[in-house]
Write a structure and sequence with these properties.
The structure holds two protein chains of two kinds. Chain A is an all-alpha fold. Helix content of chain A is about 80%, strand content about 0%. Chain A has one domain (about 5-50). Chain A is built from two helices and no strands. By secondary structure, chain B is mostly helical. Chain B folds into two domains: about 30-60; about 80-255, no CATH class. The radius of gyration of chain B is 28 Å and the shape is flat. Classes of the chains: A mainly alpha, B mainly alpha. Chains A and B meet through helix 1 of A and helix 2 of B.
Chain lengths: ~55, ~270
C-alpha cells in the first residue's frame, strides 16, 4: 500500500512539473507561477521517492 | 554602469523582460531555451508518466532462472538484437555480426561528410531530400526493422518460419536443401566455385559502381558529380551497393535456397 502511495505521489509530482512547463509555454511572463509549480512538483516527487525506498523488494 | 543602475533601482520598478519569441514570417529564429527545450521536457514528462503507469499495471515478462541443462527453443536474443540474429540465417557470423554492424555504424558516421545537399536544414521536406530519405528509409525499415519483426514474430523452434496463425511445433523439420550459387549453376569443382563466387562479388561491385556513376551523371549532371567529388561518391556507392547486396543475398536465400554466393575455406559470403 505504501508502495502505491509513494508511486502516486511521484506521478502527481511529475504531472505538476509537466503542468508547470505547459503553463510557462502558454503564458507570456508567467515565469513565477511556472517556477513555483516546478519546485512544488519536485518536492512532491521527492516525498514519494523517499517513501518508496530502494532494495525492499 | 548599467549594473549599478539596476542595483539602485527599486524592486517594484523592475520590469520582467520576456524572452524573444517569433512574431512574423521574417522573424523565424527563437532561442532554443526555453522554447524548444521546454516542449521537449514536457514530452519527456508525458513519456515518464506513461512508463510509470505501465510498469505499475503490467509485470515484466521475466521467465524462470536459466537452466543450463534445458535451453529454450528457440533461444532468442532481446528484441532489439533479433535483427542481427536473423541475419545469421543469411550470412556467416563474421559477416552478420561484425562486418555489417560495423558498416552500419561507419555509414551513419559518414553521412554528414558525404551529404552535400544543403536543403532540409531546420525543416522537414521530402521533395528536397528525396534520395537521402529513401535510402535511409530503405536501410532502416527494410534492413533493420523488418528483420526485427521477422525475428520476433515469425521465427519459432529451430529458427523455422512460422506464420502468426501457425502453432509453434518443436518437431517441425524444414526439408530445405541449401546449396551454394556456383553449385546451383552446375560448377562442381571446389577451386572454380571459389573463383566464380569471388569474380561474381567483384563484378557486382565494379558494375554497380559504374552504373551508379552513370545514373548520378544522368540524374544530376556532371557539375553535381564534380562538386560531390570522387571520394564522396566512392564511399556512398560502396555503402549503397553493400545495402543492395545484403538484400539480394537475403532474397536469394528465401527464393532459391542459396546458402553462399562465394565459398572458400576461410570466408563465405
Amino acid at each position: 500500500m505504501k508502495f502505491y502511495l509513494a508511486k502516486t505521489l511521484e506521478l502527481v509530482g511529475i504531472t505538476t512539473v509537466g503542468f508547470g512547463l505547459l503553463y510557462g509555454l502558454n503564458h507570456e511572463g508567467g515565469l513565477r507561477v511556472e517556477l513555483n509549480l516546478l519546485i512544488l512538483g519536485s518536492a512532491i516527487f521527492l516525498v514519494g521517492r523517499f517513501m518508496e525506498g530502494r532494495g525492499a523488494a | 554602469m548599467a549594473t549599478s543602475a539596476v542595483k539602485n533601482e527599486p524592486a517594484a520598478k523592475r520590469v520582467e523582460v520576456t524572452i524573444q519569441k517569433a512574431v512574423g514570417p521574417g522573424d523565424d529564429k527563437v532561442h532554443t531555451w526555453p522554447h524548444l527545450v521546454r516542449a521537449e521536457f514536457i514530452c519527456a514528462v508525458l513519456v515518464m508518466v506513461g512508463m510509470i503507469l505501465w510498469s505499475l499495471l503490467i509485470d515484466a515478462p521475466l521467465e524462470e532462472p536459466a537452466n543450463p541443462s534445458r535451453t529454450p527453443n528457440p533461444s532468442k536474443a532481446p528484441w532489439y538484437f533479433l535483427g542481427l540474429q536473423e541475419m545469421l540465417v543469411f550470412f556467416d557470423p563474421w559477416h552478420a555480426g561484425v562486418v555489417l554492424p560495423s558498416l552500419i555504424i561507419v555509414g551513419l558516421m559518414v553521412i554528414p561528410y558525404i551529404d552535400i545537399n544543403p536543403k532540409g536544414n531546420g525543416y522537414y521536406c521530402f521533395a528536397d531530400r528525396k534520395w537521402e530519405l529513401l535510402t535511409f528509409i530503405f536501410g532502416f525499415h527494410i534492413l533493420w526493422v523488418s528483420l526485427i519483426v521477422i525475428g520476433t514474430l515469425l521465427r519459432g523452434p529451430g529458427w523455422n518460419w512460422f506464420w502468426p496463425w501457425q502453432q509453434w511445433d518443436p518437431h517441425k523439420v524444414e526439408a530445405l536443401t541449401n546449396v551454394n550459387l556456383p553449385y546451383l549453376l552446375g560448377i562442381r569443382d571446389y577451386f572454380w566455385s571459389a573463383v566464380f563466387g569471388l569474380s561474381l562479388v567483384i563484378t557486382f561491385f565494379i558494375v554497380g559502381t559504374v552504373g551508379m556513376y552513370a545514373w548520378v551523371i544522368w540524374l544530376k549532371g556532371p557539375e553535381f558529380m564534380q562538386r560531390w567529388g570522387m571520394t564522396r561518391f566512392m564511399i556512398t556507392s560502396f555503402l549503397f551497393l553493400n545495402m543492395m547486396a545484403t538484400l539480394i543475398k537475403m532474397l536469394l536465400r528465401h527464393l532459391l535456397n542459396v546458402k553462399y554466393v562465394m565459398e572458400t575455406p576461410w570466408i563465405n559470403i
